[in-house]
Specification:
The chain is of the alpha+beta class. The protein has one domain: Alpha-Beta Plaits (2-Layer Sandwich), CATH 3.30.70.120. A four-stranded antiparallel sheet has the order 4-7-1-8, covered by helices on one side. A two-stranded antiparallel ribbon has the order 2-3. A two-stranded antiparallel sheet has the order 5-6. Strand 5 and strand 6 form a beta hairpin. The chain is globular and about 45 Å long.
């Protein structure tokens, strides 16, 4: 079965070293998204990147400490995403947040009648 739907894509870019009240910010954000009833979220750890300070982080670094970029992607109804933004602001002191209107396409298997 094919289901088409319009929604909003929320992208949150943070650094893996970013902490808030002693906790990893990416983990705090994903937990808050789940608690808010958002349809789904995924966090990706980047292999290389830099932010506004221009400091390159890479898995190729010789240093034991690598401060890699993390991208959290969220897709849901625009109203639910907008309603979550104030909660996000209480968690995130620094980072980049983008919003995009998207069209989703869900493919679901048809179950045969028993």
């Amino acid at each position: 079965m094919r289901i088409e739907h319009n929604g909003t894509l929320l992208r949150i870019y943070v650094s893996e070293s970013t902490r808030r009240r002693g906790r990893n910010v990416a983990t705090s954000i994903v937990e808050a998204l789940a608690a808010a009833g958002i349809a789904g979220a995924i966090a990706f750890k980047g292999i290389e990147g830099f932010g506004r300070r221009g400091v390159l982080s890479s898995t190729r670094a010789v240093d034991a400490w690598m401060d890699l970029p993390i991208l959290i992607e969220v897709i849901d109804e625009e109203e639910k995403i907008q309603a979550f933004l104030p909660a996000l602001e209480t968690i995130l002191d620094e980072g980049l947040v983008t919003l995009e209107r998207i069209q989703t396409l869900l493919l679901r298997a048809r179950h045969a009648a028993p």
